[in-house]
Amino acid sequence: MKRLAAVGLALLLTGCGAGSSEVVDGMRAPTGLAPGVTLFFVDADQRLRPQPRETGRLGTVVEALALLLTGPGADPDLHTEISARGETRVVVETSADRITVRLPLTGADLTDLGVDQVVCTALGVHVQGGGSASTTVLVVFTLPGTEPNPPRRCPVIPPG
Amino acid sequence: MSRWFRPRGLRSRLVVAFVLVTVLGAAAAAWAGAATAGTALEEESRRRLTETLERQISAVTADLAHPPTPDSLDRLRASIGEDTQVSYRDLRSGDLPVITDALRAAVRDRGGLVFQTVTTGGSRKLLIGTPIVLTGIDLRRSPSGVEVYAVRDLAETDRQVGRLLWTAALTSALALPVAVLLALVAAGGVLRPVRRVRDTARALAAGDLSARMSTRGGDELADLGRTVNGMAASVQEAMAELRRFVADVSHELRTPLTTLTAVVEVLADSVDDREPAARESAELALAETQRLVALVEDLMEVSRFDAGMVSLRAEPVEVAGAVRDCLGARGWRDLVRLDLPEEVGATLDRRRLDVIIANLVGNALRHGAPPVALRLSADDERVEIEVTDHGPGLDQEVVAHVFDRFYKADTARAHSAGSGLGLAISLANARLHGGDLVAGNAEGGGARFVLRLPRHHREPS
Q1: Mean pLDDT in runs of 10 for chain B (461 residues)?
Q2: Residue B105 contacts by C-beta under 8 Å, 6 or more apart in sequence?
Q3: Cβ atoms within 10 Å of A1's Cβ, excluding its own
Q4: Does the residue A13 lie in any domain?
Q5: Model confidence pTM above 0.80
Q6: Best mutation site among B69, B135, B148 for testing chain A: the one with the most A CBs within 10 Å?
Q7: Does a structural domain hold residue A43?
Q8: What total of structural domains would you count in chain A?
Q9: Could you list the residue range(s) of the whole structural domain that residue A107 is in?
């Protein structure tokens, strides 16, 4: 009887857990810090090439696309396949597995590579900010007279 | 069981066992349920707290400069909230001394979000630590050097777990009265047959060999009851056989003995007075034969009592006259000092009263010393006859056995005239009247027998 009581007491005490427990692994670490944003342009061989921009922080998809529309700057090796009209205000909607980008252009203003530039830049910001790499990007043109493109992935960013 | 608690009866032992088993079972089940629910609660709150922290960090990182400045670290900390520390290499915003070195090491080494529970100041806290990583455009993750630590309170969770345990304890306590009730019912079911066995055994021990117990059902206790009944039946059968044997033997002895008595009487009468030796032998033979006849008659009487074949012939009797007649018939009138009231009317079996008085007075005359006294008294209910002598009296040992059959108080006087059955028969006769016969010693030191009979015998209706 006494031994039984002692065992019960011991169980109770250990169950009450005094002091600190083990360090336990939780979820993945948050991300989203970056020294800058990466834009995608086209080189002389018609290949997509990333161009890092030292913006000091990652920023948003909207900001990245605005920078993209202003062109590659004074880099002789890169050019853009998007003919900008001076208007850089884009609208971006992000849902669980889809980024919808609304460009103030028509379909005629971009080549297919130009669309890839938009898709890869948007997806790059999304992925660096902790988003899923399997997200697809739908590019929509706000100016009339363009058939909508199907949603796309970026060919140079691995899909997760 | 230890010394301070040892339940005696079967009932209390059953109740204690029932209560222990039920309450322990209920407590174990309730406790296990509460513990599982408690663990789930704690996991849920841990998940919620870490997810909230991760979301708060992720919401602002895209807007933070990298590498961070002291100002941007402050901003990050402010957006996460209280009890937070953010560090980048040597830069540090906020101070949390409660964060353990083990947690800091794990944040640096494991590269993911880690947590730890600690107890400080009596309450439990959840420590969360996480690095913020850089994700490349190729999805490669590398440490940024920025680490976030947060302390979250688990008191609310602990209160919920405490409430769960309290409910569990209450549920277990509710099982207690139910257990007691069930135990009492079960104990009753066991104890009733046990009590019947005890009562039957007691009746058997008291001499009622026809006592049987009712046995219902097919359990072990019913089995025990049947065994007891079987035992009683065989004991009764054996006793009946013995009594039949005694009755048969005495009956068979009586006829030749009657003849023998007549022959010996004739012989004793015909012996010539001039041959003293032959005369003495003849008289001895006569005395012994008469004693044998008395013994056989007593044996037959005892057999009749044993077989239950006796009946009381109650009739109006004048007790004082009956006493005088009894003594007169045996020639004892002058040997006994009588103390009789004028007239005592009663309803008794005259023959049995005569047997008792003759036996008591005969014993006093034979074994005690004169003077022998007989005193008769009566009230409305009872008649009391007291026979005393002035001999040495009865030993305590003798008093206990004086009514046993063939009990001889003095082994040296084994060859006495009595059959050894007289007092047993007297007691049986007294009880047949619904009265009693008690042996003891008078104040003067002699033996004293007191017979008490109901004055008016009533037939049992």
Answers
A1: 59 84 85 87 91 90 87 90 89 86 89 89 87 88 90 88 85 83 85 85 85 82 87 90 86 88 86 79 86 86 82 88 90 87 86 91 84 88 90 83 78 59 89 89 85 80 47
A2: none
A3: 8
A4: no
A5: no
A6: B135
A7: yes
A8: 1
A9: 33-160
